[in-house]
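#lab-general

N.A. 3:47 PM
ok so I finally got the sequence cleaned up, no stray characters, all 130 residues accounted for. can someone with queue access submit it? mine expired

B.Y. 3:52 PM
send it over

N.A. 3:53 PM
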Amino acid sequence: MKFAKIALLSVAVLMVCSAASRKSKPVYAFGFSASFTDTVVYCTEIQVLDSVHLDKNGFLPYRDHYSYQLKNYLEYQKGEKNRTCMIYFSNNPARLSKERAKLLDRYKKDEAIRPEELKQAEFSFRKPED
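B.Y. 4:20 PM
back already:
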């Protein structure tokens, strides 16, 4: 019985220490929206996602909810229908910034397409309800 108590106590201490030592990095993200029937593409600024951590595989939980937030904003606030929305995310803001610049450069090459930036004051991502 004494051995079981000591083992249980040491496991509890180990779990507390490992949870405290694990520092979670902030998650950064930007949204992108395009349509096959429109010449405007929308791109949000890079934002810090509040109280969000990547899962053990490095994926953003509720990715689809963030995409739908952008889609709903464009449909109901801007009147833009039938848009495909994506979210790009990373713990590394420099890598994400480079990805965003590369994506926008691809669309800026085509003169028929007009990229439009959504400022954070205009649109910002919110943590989805569990």
